[in-house]
Amino acid sequence: MADSGKTVALIMIDVLDAFFAPGKPAYYPDSVKVLEPCRQLLDKAREADRLVVHAVERHRPGLADFEHKKIPVHCEIGDDQSPYVAGFAPVDRPNEVELPKRRYSAFYGTDLDLMLREQGVETLVIGGVKTNVCVRATVQDAFAAGYEILLVKEATNSNRPHLAEASLEDIDRYFGSVVSLEQALERL
Fold first, then answer.
1. Which of 11, 87, 139, 181 is least enclosed by beta carbons within 10 angstroms?
2. Residue ranges of the domains in the chain?
3. What CATH architecture applies to the domain 8-187?
4. Which regions in the chain score pLDDT beneath 70?
5. Among 21, 38, 59, which residue's Cα sits nearest to residue 181?
6. Rounded distance, CA 138 to CA 148, Å?
7. Does pTM top 0.85 for this prediction?
8. Neighbouring C-beta atoms of residue 114, cutoff 10 Å
9. How far is CA 56 from CA 41, 89, 96, 172, in A?
């Protein structure tokens, strides 16, 4: 499963305090289960000098945001929900970037597709939260754009486990491959 070039990138979705810190509106207790697998993916991607994209919610304070018609206000720039979980912030290296997003998909309204294509990326290893919302939306858009998708089962979950399981089944059947952490680490 190894590749010969820099055609594999890691997309980390919303590894922010909003989802992982108790007391925050988007927090759910099982979210912490993805942190160790995500940490292993991040470490391996950095070790292999892969492109790492931290796709993170960044809403503008005081401005209307359509997403907030469906879910509570969250991750406004500078608020106490927006910081990265300790150890997950981008490090200072050219192959690691923050990608602010205002919708569930990391592709919608961002330059992610352009950036990936300019770097010759063909395969995306994906981890983060939540499987049935931001992860799924990103996976669907990645599929529509023609990328090979490897969603790491241990590195994603949701506060609605039944929807996470249904999303994993749909993703594996229609959009990409749901792979083990071990398989993903081999590709990175």
1. 87
2. 8-187
3. 3-Layer(aba) Sandwich (3.40)
4. 1-6
5. 38
6. 12
7. yes
8. 9
9. 17, 10, 13, 24
